[in-house]
Write a structure and sequence with these properties.
The structure is a single chain. The protein is α/β, with parallel strands linked by helices and 267 residues long. The chain has a single domain (11-255), classed as Rossmann fold. 44% of the residues lie in helices and 15% in strands. The protein has helices at 20-31, 43-56, 71-85, 111-139, 160-180, 198-203, 206-215, 225-234; strands at 11-15, 35-40, 60-65, 90-93, 142-147, 185-192, 246-249. Strands 3-2-1-4-5-6-7 form a seven-stranded parallel sheet, with helices on both faces. Helix 5 (160-180) links the parallel strand 5 (142-147) and strand 6. The longest helix has 29 residues, at 111-139. The radius of gyration is 18 Å and the shape is globular.
């Protein structure tokens, strides 16, 4: 007996999927047969993801360009995606940022910095979830997966704002699972550790990467396509009894006692 994860006919929205983790999540859903709305603020990057999916020839994809800082734009993103897809079965919320405004000592985190990092992570995710859930309630079922962070499992100097915002997403995930479960909607969060995305690779030297990997029980860093594989599994019937959970995919980094920081981020 073989086990295959098949999302043929599934209608999937992935935010922030123009690059990095979001792109790989979109590609993995398409490989499983889904049609994917590739949402990103950068039209050229969204188009690149769509082209990659088209080249692989499994599922289908189309781009949705969105300014995630605008509440009305988020509503339009979900409405446009669901309209073209004919509904919405799965949504993966990968909108969020670390950025210079979310990276600072606590003594330097003024109100503007706090509002910025909370808005760009927690509030955006909450608004995306609300719009997605409204469509899924009408459809009678769905899966929402939020991309959190391994930084929520341990104190990290200079990342208080980012860690608190992502921890808020973890709590929000559980609350939504309770409220929307009776409507057939499962809600989950996945948390990567240090993952070799383009941004991280640009600031991480080979020696620093090796030191971080050595501090993890599995002695490795994450590859961004691994989050795609995890999301495809969690959205499948193989995981149909799982909801309200934070799934760590961090090579065991949350168990490490001494962990070097990524330059410029504290991560």
């Amino acid at each position: 007996m073989s086990v295959t994860i098949d999302h043929s006919g599934a209608r999937v929205l992935v935010t922030g999927s123009g690059a990095g983790i979001g792109r790989e999540v979109a590609r993995w859903f398409a490989r499983a047969g889904a049609t994917v709305a590739v949402a990103d603020a950068r039209s050229d990057m969204a188009d690149e993801t769509v082209a990659l999916i088209d080249q692989e020839g499994d599922g289908g994809a189309f781009a949705v360009v969105v300014d995630a800082r605008d509440d009305q734009e988020l509503e339009r993103m979900v409405e446009e995606s669901a309209g073209k897809l004919g509904g919405l079965d799965v949504a993966v919320n990968n909108i969020g940022m670390l950025g210079p405004r979310g990276t600072a000592p606590l003594l330097d985190m003024d109100g503007e910095r706090w509002r910025d990092v909370l808005d760009q992570n927690l509030v955006l995710t909450a608004l995306c979830m609300r719009a997605e859930a409204r469509v899924m309630v009408d459809g009678g079922a769905g899966v929402i997966i939020n991309v959190s962070s391994g930084e929520t499992t341990r104190p990290s100097p200079f990342l208080a704002g980012y860690g608190a915002a992502k921890a808020g997403i973890n709590h929000l995930t559980g609350t939504a699972a309770v409220e929307w479960g009776p409507s057939g909607i499962r809600v989950l969060a996945i948390a990567p550790g240090t993952t070799l995305t383009e941004t991280v690779s640009a600031v991480l030297s080979e020696e620093q990467g090796a030191a971080i990997a050595a501090s993890n029980p599995l002695r490795r860093l994450g590859d961004h396509d691994e989050l795609g594989r995890l999301a495809v599994f969690l959205a499948s019937d193989l995981a149909r009894n799982i909801t309200g959970q934070l799934i760590l995919a961090d090579a065991g980094a949350h168990l490490a006692r001494d962990r070097p920081a990524i330059p410029g981020t504290g991560e």
